[in-house]
Amino acid sequence: MTDPALVKKPLKDRAEDFDRRTEQYLSLGHDRFEAARFVAGCAGELGSPALDVGTGKGLLAMALASNGLEVVSIDISEEDSELAGFLAAERSLSGRIEFAIRDASSLPYESGKFKAVAMMEVLHHLDNAEGVLSEMTRVLSPNGKLIIADFNEEGFGMVAKVHRSEGKEHPRSKCTIDSAASFLCSLGLKEEGRAEAHNNAAVWFSKTP
Q: How far apart are CA 96 and CA 192, in angstroms?
């Protein structure tokens, strides 16, 4: 007999689960879509193509596409990428986003391909943050912008509360915004600014020719 826990839920059911979780966050004062729009816009005008690393449910990819960018959106989870594509199609954004299953620590793209590279709410999941950040830097074009964002402490508290209400613990690695920023600067990127809103802290960088 197949273990029910290993059976992939139908896409429609997963989309409904996403909507329920979104409403749960809204009841706690957190708008996931507004958070993504904040991250997508924090560094000012961005160029195409853009790379969204660790897309999850595609919120940042959709925010970038809504700003007029052509986006490549990568994730190691086939289920998440499939759901992200479905949610993007619901919002008529499919034509601007290419969803792909990729390992961010070994990207199959040439150096300097992307004018913008962004990551949102992913750092705290990474065991090999330096490998991923190095690849993000490599594929960023000269004069391009790189954005990293993750939950601030208030955001982490909110997410932990939601997970504990379901009898789970939200994983959190040792990688922080500050440690990631320090490493990116060691690779030659220049920190351009920081901002905090919608339970997220964001930092953005430029890459000089």
A: 27
Is residue 45 among the annotated active site residues?
A: no
**Among 63, 71, 57, 73, CA closest to 35:** 63
pLDDT over 70 (residue 4): no
Average the pLDDT over 121-138 and give the result: 95
pLDDT digits (tens, 9 = 90+) for 175-190: 999 999 999 999 999 9
Catalytic residue among 23, 70, 98, 121: 121
This prediction has a pTM of 0.93
Go through the domains of the chain in sequence order and give each one's CATH number.
Answer: 11-22+31-206 (3.40.50.150)
Task: Please determine, for residue 76, whether its predicted confidence score (pLDDT) is greater than 80.
Answer: yes
Short-list 70, 71, 55, 57, CA closest to 120? 55
Question: Distance (Å, rounded) from C-alpha 132 to C-alpha 183?
Answer: 11
Mean pLDDT of the chain: 94
